[in-house]
Amino acid sequence: MSSLHVPKEINLEFGSVQKLGQIASDFGATHLFIVIDAFLTQSPLNYQDQLEQICRKHSLEITCFSDFRGEPTTEHLDEAISKINVCGADCIVAMGGGSSIDLAKAISVFAINRGITLDEIEQKRDLKRLPLIAIPTTAGTGSEATKVMVITDSKSNIKKNPGNPKLIPDVAILDPNLTMSLPKHFTVYTGLDALAHAMEAYVSTRATELSNHYALEAIKMVGEALPRVYDNGKDEEARKKMLLASCYAGIAFSNSSTNLAHATARPLGAHFHIPHGLSVALLLPFVIEFGLEAARERYANIAMALGVERSKNKEELAKDALMIVHRYNERFNIWNDGFKYIKPSEFEESIPTLVQDSLSGNGVLTNQIIPTDADVEKIYKQLLKKVSQYSVN
Ligand SMILES: NC(=O)c1ccc[n+]([C@@H]2O[C@H](COP(=O)([O-])OP(=O)(O)OC[C@H]3O[C@@H](n4cnc5c(N)ncnc54)[C@H](O)[C@@H]3O)[C@@H](O)[C@H]2O)c1
Ligand SMILES: [Fe+2]
């Protein structure tokens, strides 16, 4: 049976952030705890001021939490919980990329479940949380529509990603205006993350008819819009398409799964502080190569969604899907950017740990072929070889 978990409401339009006050009032909220990326509170963006104005019109009290940088950790979460315990807000709003939305998801749970641990969240069927409204400002994670939150445990330095359908935000507000300021490099990192979500969801052994629909639509939209937003960040139509693609890709993987590209990328984020989208983009081509034979027909369909001519045979089409992803990495400077974070000798020494961390979670169990330690080691070595070529250029 195919079933689909999605937010109760998704708004997609330029200017839709203006609806926040009304949406929160409809929940009966009186005091919003706004988790906002620190960068977005600064001039010239001043999104915090904009939110305050929108909320004032509806007589909503607000408390902002923006004391965090980078991807969220349990330390950030503890600080936020201390703050919300004092102000007593009754609704959480997230504005930012996946980092802000995931932190907001965690706050919505930990604010009313004293003593719960990240590991317990996945198992708890009747998980309660505060109402949650998500406003993404990157087009990549789709966290506004997913049941997953990614938080690094500050003690173990492991990126944890508990999933529970109760974590899906109640409302997603997709306002493409908010993504127009995203710099080129984050535009492609996050855009390739969305592509990876959709591709991995589509080739997963947990894929369903419903998740496949969202996955293929997302792949098609990324293929059309990502090169356009890379060339011109002010292309409004393409920005809107990327935001929708990211949301669809989120729905796809949240109702199917991600796979080996995410399982191998997560330790790169934790050990080398590589931005999430970049770490996934660096590994995706090698992971596709590993699974190409086993999921040939699926990769052929992906190639067609990316616009490759249908007259080719399945084997050629599947290889084209791989070639397109390699081409994106060249065109969007992914290898060069990867080299800024990966120092070859340090990376080589870490490979055994990276392999162990990738295989320690359940992230590889839905791969068409379950990889061995040696398979994962080979994937990291392929990446090392590739970025090493850039060190001499
Ligand atoms: N919950 C999920 O379903 C899910 C899925 C994939 C990834 N993730 C997690 O999400 C996090 C990454 O999120 P992300 O890729 O969206 O990046 P991010 O939220 O970390 O933001 C990346 C950078 O972009 C900046 N930024 C954000 N919006 C901007 C805008 N409109 N204009 C200018 N700058 C802006 C931020 O300040 C930050 O420096 C990681 O922790 C990753 O593991 C979660
Ligand atoms: Fe991702």
Automatic annotation (TrEMBL):
It comes from the Bacteria. GO terms for molecular function: metal ion binding; methanol dehydrogenase (NAD+) activity. It is an enzyme of class 1 (oxidoreductase). Residues 7-176 form the Alcohol dehydrogenase iron-type/glycerol dehydrogenase GldA domain. The keyword Oxidoreductase applies. Belongs to the iron-containing alcohol dehydrogenase family. This is NAD-dependent methanol dehydrogenase. It comes from Halalkalibacter krulwichiae. The gene is mdh_2.
